[in-house]
UniProtKB/TrEMBL annotation:
Similarity comment: family membership: Belongs to the peroxidase family.
Pfam families the record matches: peroxidase (PF00141)
EC supergroup of this enzyme: oxidoreductase
Matching InterPro entries: Ccp1-like, Haem_peroxidase, Haem_peroxidase_sf
Annotated organism of origin: Marasmius crinis-equi
Domain Plant heme peroxidase family profile: 95-309
Gene3D superfamilies from the UniProt entry: 1.10.520.10
Alphabetical UniProt keywords: Heme, Iron, Metal-binding, Oxidoreductase, Peroxidase
Family matches, as PROSITE patterns: PEROXIDASE_4
Enzyme Commission number(s) from the entry: 1.11.1.-
Taxonomy, superkingdom: Eukaryota
Entry protein name: Peroxidase
Keyword Transferase in record: no
């Protein structure tokens, strides 16, 4: 048995990191595919030998994952970590005698319906917010749904992304299939054409509408059946269709609130209660005309639960990915296997920095240990335990309906540690030991470490606070700036999501921060603050201090830590 000294291990780690940076292309790591690729096979023979020694005796393995861009991290959080989307939709939560899921799917379809394949215009672009006065878009469900999403847009997550995500999250929450999600939609700034189909239109109009949206006749039949698996028709809004009182004022399409094939089987068996198929008013029986338009061939072909789910998943995916020409969607947002949280560095109370960050894993493992490491300002890794820390907290998260369906159980490892202000920090990384004898994984952004670019101008999440008064809730954003004084110019440009359904477009405002007398200067830092409405949590920062300019974009202030 060879015992490697700490210094030898560190030398190999550093050597490996340099070699990796130079020789390896970034490895795309596909989450959910089990263990990360074995890095040994990709190293030079010389390094592979050194590395295999290390793997044998120190059981260290490099997980070569590149940190995704901010948008992918934010979309990952919305899709897989519990949040406002998952709590609104719950397990097929009921609303207004239908379900939140049904309202969200209808919203997504109506928004997408403005697409025209002939010139590439329109599509899922949130233009629906400017189209609510049209009779096709009648219903409280539409405004309620827009309100569900409107105040949660972010600089990298648009309202149209949230509408698209709502449709697939809602579908899964009611027992429907998983549908891959891509982000990157761009919000419209005005209304699109009035092309949402209406029940009183004839079959030829409907077939042409769906063709313009990009769907064949058979796809039209399936897409309508998939959509009308959820929810129903509200008597209050459509008294010509639902002519007699019904339970809760909503006539369900297939008698169930779940996403299932009952809409098809009931239709084929002649037992369907669908008000758009067997309603007393033949003119508005659009589902009957559509479903029977090919002699029921398509309806028969999607009658089994498996085929129904598969066909609906494909069509819903196409529906949410129907966007105006020129809009570039992201890759599919897979759950990130080793997800590094935001990193916060700010002056603590005791003359040291507080450094707060986290690592998220997709599965629970009580045997697992996770350790945080960092290099000092000069980039040298200091000897253990000088630059390492164990988690200050470990907890699980119930996730979203999609997380549950994917069989994931999220585990968070939170770190809240002190860092010497003189030696400071330039980068950090993690080591994860599953405790089962497998190699320790080093999560280090492809060998480079996760950078802390500077420690001169910092969002101080230990000193930010919230305040409420008659006019609302506010966030006091605090910036710690080194070698700054009242003559320094520190500005933030905040991001304000749409404030109402009639004012849906996000706005930005630039504010000057002033020295905050509540926080006396310490360790060379002066504290500046500004009060912003609570929802303005995202901001860009610019600081001009003694001739030097610091700029950073897309910082999330959020709550005090
Ligand atoms: C010719 C095509 C279509 C017509 C004429 C039509 C018509 C209607 C009508 C009149 C309602 C009742 C709305 C209410 O009372 O709030 C409704 C509900 C609904 N539609 Fe459609 N629809 C069509 C296609 C689609 C498609 C393609 C989808 C989705 C892929 C869809 C999804 C829904 C959903 C989920 C509801 C239930 C809403 C709720 O319960 O709140 N529809 N549709």
């Amino acid at each position: 048995m060879i015992n490697l000294t700490e210094a030898a291990v560190e030398e190999i780690r550093t050597f490996a990191a340099i070699e990796l940076e130079e020789k390896l292309e970034p490895i795309k790591y596909n989450c959910g595919a089990g263990h990360p690729p074995d890095i040994l096979t990709m190293l030079s023979p010389h390094l592979a030998l050194k590395w295999s020694l290390l793997a044998t005796y120190a059981a260290l393995n490099v997980v070569a994952i590149k940190r995704p861009e901010l948008r992918m991290e934010r979309l990952d959080e919305l899709l897989w970590e519990s949040n406002f989307v998952s709590s609104a939709v719950g397990t097929c939560v009921a609303r207004d005698n239908s379900t939140v899921a049904a309202q969200w799917v209808r919203l997504a379809y109506h928004d997408m319906s403005t697409h025209n394949v002939d010139d590439g215009s329109g599509g899922l672009d949130a233009s629906i917010v400017f189209e609510l006065d049209r009779p096709q878009n009648v219903g409280k469900g539409m405004t309620d749904s827009i309100n569900d999403f409107r105040s949660s847009t972010e600089p990298t997550v648009t309202l149209s992304d949230l509408i698209a995500m709502g449709a697939i999250m809602g579908t899964v929450s009611c027992g429907g299939p998983m549908i891959p999600f891509r982000g990157g939609r761009v919000d419209a700034t005005s209304a699109g054409p009035a092309t949402v189909p209406e029940p009183q239109q004839d079959l030829a109009s409907h077939t042409e509408s769906f063709r313009q949206q990009g769907f064949t006749q058979s796809e039209m039949i399936s897409l309508v059946a998939c959509g009308h698996s959820l929810g129903g028709v509200r008597r209050e809004d459509f008294p010509d269709i639902v002519q007699t009182p019904v339970d809760g004022n909503v006539a369900l399409f297939d008698g169930t609130k779940l996403f299932d094939n009952a809409v098809v089987t009931g239709y084929l068996q002649g037992t369907t209660p669908n008000p758009l198929a067997v309603g007393p008013n033949a003119t508005t029986n659009s589902d009957l005309r559509i479903f029977s338009s090919d002699g029921n061939a398509t309806m028969q072909s999607i009658a089994s639960p498996d085929t129904f789910n598969k066909v609906c998943a494909d069509l819903f995916e196409r529906m949410i990915n129907t966007v105006p020409k020129g809009v570039q969607l992201t890759e599919v947002v897979e759950p990130i296997e080793y997800k590094v949280g935001q990193a916060w560095l700010f002056p603590g109370d005791e003359g040291a920095f507080r450094f707060v960050t986290s690592l998220r894993m997709l599965h629970k493992n009580p045997l697992r240990t996770v350790k945080l490491f960092w290099s000092d300002r000069q980039g040298s890794a200091c000897p253990s335990p000088g630059c390492s820390a164990s988690p200050s907290d470990t907890f699980g998260d119930s996730g979203t309906p999609m997380t549950n369906k994917a069989g994931l159980s999220l585990s968070f490892y939170e770190f809240d540690t002190k860092i010497n202000m003189t030696s400071s920090i330039s980068k950090f990384w993690f080591e994860v030991d599953e405790g089962d004898g497998s190699a320790v994984a080093r999560v280090d952004d492809d060998g480079a470490g996760f950078p802390i670019v500077q420690d001169a101008v910092l969002l101080d999440r230990g000193r930010i606070s919230t305040e409420s008064d008659k006019s609302g809730t506010f966030l006091i954003i605090v910036i710690a700036a080194r070698n700054a004084d009242a003559s320094s110019r520190i500005t933030i440009t905040t991001y304000q999501p749409g404030v109402s359904v009639s004012k849906p477009i996000p706005t930005r405002q630039t504010l000057n921060l002033s020295v905050d007398p509540r926080f006396p200067p310490m360790a060379g830092y002066t504290f500046f603050s500004a009060k912003v409405p609570f929802r303005q949590e995202w901001f860009d920062l610019k600081a001009e201090i003694g001739g030097e300019v610091f700029e950073q974009q897309n910082i999330l202030a959020s709550r005090k830590i």
